[in-house]
Amino acid sequence: AQLAQAQAKWGAKIRSSVARAQRYPNGTRARGTVKLQIRVSPAGRVVGVSVVRSSGDRRLDKAAVAAVNRARLPRAPKGLTAASYRFNLPLSFKR
Q1: Is the pTM value of this prediction over 0.90?
Q2: What pLDDT shows up at residue 27?
């Protein structure tokens, strides 16, 4: 239970880091939510990122993936020692 709580807290920090790195893409007025799945190492490195559900606009989807890659992610709390952890991350874009 403590590990699940630690992972949830870490996930919240990851979400806010990605939100800070999020940029609205040029060349579109689209709005929507991109649902991503990201895999993160305990060191805070992105191991993988994929679009689980598209926003319907390719530019928004690309901007969401770019935000994950641009974000400076925090390290995992002590006790989380698996090779990587998965997080589902919805990112909303609206002008």
Answers
A1: yes
A2: 87
